Amino acid sequence: xxxxxxxxxxxxxxxxxxxxxxxxxxxxxxxxxxxxxxxxxxxxxxxxxxxxxx
Length: 54
What we know:
Blueprint lengths: L18 H14 L3 H18 L1
Helix pairs in contact: 1-2
């Protein structure tokens, strides 16, 4: 069940990453004190926002 939210995360995505990319993901997660999934979500939003600038 989990905590109630206005933005449920009901889609699961799986991807393959090399060791270097995974280490970068772990480091970002630790330094930002958020989950790896949150780092990935933020990265997607950042790339998407950059699309508008082109």
